[in-house]
Structures are given as structure tokens and as C-alpha cells.
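Format notes (please read before filing issues)

Several people have asked whether sequences and C-alpha cells are stored in separate files. They are not. Every record keeps both together, in the order shown below: the sequence lines, then the C-alpha cell lines. Line labels are part of the format and must not be stripped during preprocessing.
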Amino acid sequence: MGKPTGFIEFLRELPSELAPLDRIRNWDEFHFPMPDDKLRTQAARCMDCGTPFCHTGTLISGMASGCPVNNLIPEWNDLVYRGLWQEALDRLHKTNNFPEFTGRVCPAPCEGSCVLGIHNPPVTIKNIECSIIDKGWDEGWVRPEQPRKRTDKKVAVIGSGPAGLAAAAQLNKAGHWVTVFERADRPGGLLMYGIPNMKLDKEEVVMRRLHILEEEGVKFICNTEVGKDFPVENLMTEFDAVVLATGATKPRDLPIEGRQLNGIHFAMDFLTTNTKAVLDKTSTSLSAEGKDVVIIGGGDTGTDCVGTSIRHGCNSVTQIEIMPKPPEARAADNPWPEWPKVYKMDYGQEEAAAKFGDDPRVYITTATKFEGDENNNVKAVHTVEVLWEKNEKGQFIPKHIPGTEKVIPAQLVLLAMGFLGPEQPLLDALGVERDARSNVKADHGKFATSLPGVFAAGDCRRGQSLVVWAINEGRGAAQACDLYLMGNTDLPA
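Then the structure lines:
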């Protein structure tokens, strides 16, 4: 490494950002770029650890440990330290088609498995990654690269989220003619409508990359739902292969008393409607303005609902989580290099604390009933605390604790409890085999479905997961598809 003692000499430092009460006034990204000299100092903290776990991309205890796309993290850290930014960008693009996305929205399992993190705060890998690609765009190093030669093969990619885009980018590099079908009015899938603009800017970040892909030869067809607007039968007659990357968009519901009341919505509907309004510069039909908001569920989606509701001008926001509050430091049963299950304040909770005085999350609590008014609108959420105990099968289940019941005022309730799997109509029409969880059945590493020439990648195959896993799967499916079409492949997974 360029600075073998850097991890001893320098402290972890993150870029500054706009204060919470200032940034909630608009939908802009709020992190400030870090000067090059400070970035070089942070890169110098990457220690000569011998066996870097940061780029392993393995699953430990069901969670990602290290980078799922196997980013060459020690290499580009060293290059940044030495000021070789363009070389660092080349290394970054070898494994990751869209580092400007992961550098903004990935929870950074690489940092959770950083060797330095055993006894010190880990290297700021995510920020360095984002800084490399942002400098690449600023310097004009990111340019369209047409394939050197074209094949006569045509591939349809269904879905333009991170898995579909990664598959399309790689298959286009192999010289195939790629058409991406997207049912929304804009391409990008989850990246476009599932993540708010202040977290991932659509015009400056997402569309910029989509324009590059178009210039490289990828064709996007929007407002087109395969199986409805485009016949399923035409897929295998007009295309030589198909990649399914439809995501896992069937939301988990909460079928308790009062669920039919007005004002109760799935979180993704709320986020999608809002982002579309921001991009179209119109008012949203689903607003939290002037309302008491209750969000049921944690995770990134819940956090995004908190941040969005505050920007609308809500009166209050409460986020209900059924799991216990995580500890401040790793528990004994959560050792390195597992993903650290520790308490943290994400941007939405920081903003809620700044505006309303406290973290909006209420732990080990579940909703038991939605209460409505005389007009059939929701007006309150009834809750109770729970205790996690083992049942007769040895499974942990939540049990209500008598005497802990509460009533929370709410004129808007957002369900952010995750997803059950992919929507089934297209899969039914194709007749593709599914697993016990309703996902498309296809082995990781092969990505081949039960139908010849049809491959699956991302959340529709593995279930709800991270953007970086979707990119991993899109690249892998592209490699498998290229091998199927040509009999051999030079595409990396």
C-alpha cells in the first residue's frame, strides 16, 4: 500500500453534509464533495491487511459480508492515495457497472467486513467509491463505448432496475442487440421510482447513466408491460434470449382490522407517486402535508418514507418496528466479518430528530388495529409491545404484552414491511418454474430458468435484496446468456 501506516496515523472522516433542517426544504442530494487531499488521506487508511474481506461478497448468517460485486477495493484505495484517479476508475468499472448508484445507496457491507473495523472505525470505502466515479464524470472520463463488433443476436431484458440495467450493459458489451422493456414511463425501475431524489438524483445521476447506455446501443421501451402491452408469445419469436429482471414488487400487507380505511398505502406507492411528482414538477396526489404519519416497518424503505413525509410538511412521524432496538456496538453473537447489526441514525431519522426532537422509531411494537372516522378515513393506529419467544417448533414469534397498548394519531399510514416476491402474471404467462417463495427458480451462477434461453436475475430470482446484489446477478445472468447464445463467453461475472 502507498501508506502502510495510514490506518494508525489518520482518523475516519466522512464528507460534510447540509444540516437536516436545511436539506428538508428541497429534494436535492445533500452531501458535499470531499476535497482530494482528504480523500487521499482516507484512502491511506486502507491497511495492508493480507487477506482483505472487503471484496469477498459472501453470505454469512444470511447477510452480505464484503462487496457482492467483488470490487477491487484495496487496489483503487491505493490508486486514490497516489492520486491516480483515472486508473482507480478503470479498476472500479471492471467489477461495477454503476458505482454512482452503489456509492450513494448501498449500505456498504464492504465496510462492515473491513479488517480495520475489528478495532477501529473502518475505511470510508463507500465515499471513496462515490468520489472516484463522480470525478470520472466531472473529468469526462466516462464516455459511451460501442462494442467492437456486433453479433446477430437479439436479447430482451424485462425490467430496467439495477439487475436489468447491469445485464443489458454487459450483453451490449458482448455485441448483442439489447432491448429493455419497462412498464413505467421512465427507465430505471427501483433506481428511478423506488429511491427518493435526495438520496439518488434522477436527472443528474440516473438519467446520465441511462443516456450513456442508449448511446452505447441499448434500446429502452417504456410504458410497456410485457404480457399486457407486448405479447409474451412474441418474446421468443422476436428475440434469441430473454433476461427476467422484474424485481420483487409484491408488497407485504397487514390484514388487521381497519385495513380498508382510506389513507393506508403501501410505502412504494407513496414513494413512486412522490418521485414522479418531483420529476414532473407537479403536486403529488399522495401527500403527508399537515398529517400525522405512521410508518409500519423499518429498513431503507421506511427511512425513505420518513424523509419524504418530512419534506411534505407532516405534523408528526412515527416509525413502528417489530424488532428490538439494536445495540450500540456489536453483540457477542454478531462478530466481524458479519454485517454489524448495530443502532444507527439514517438520514430520515436524523431529520425527524432535528424537526421533532427525537428518533421517530418505536421498537418491539406492532400494530393491532386501524381506527377510522365517520368518513371512513384512518385517524389512529392501535399498537402493542411484543416479546419474542420460541414456539413449540423452536421458532421465535412475537407475543403481545398485555398492558402496553397505545393509540397513535394518524391520518396517513404507510406499510413498509418488505416484499413477498415478484408479481406473478408475467411468470404465469411464460410458464416459468418458481421456487417455494414464488421467485423464479434459477440457480445462482447459472441463472437459467426452466425455459431454454430464458434467464432470471435480481430480486425476482433471489427475493428482496440490495442494489449491489442486483448488479451482481445482472452481470452473472448476462454471462450465462452470452454463453448460451455464442457457446463461449468473455464476459466477467
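For reference, the curators noted about this record: The two ends are 27 Å apart (CA to CA). The chain has a mean pLDDT of 96.
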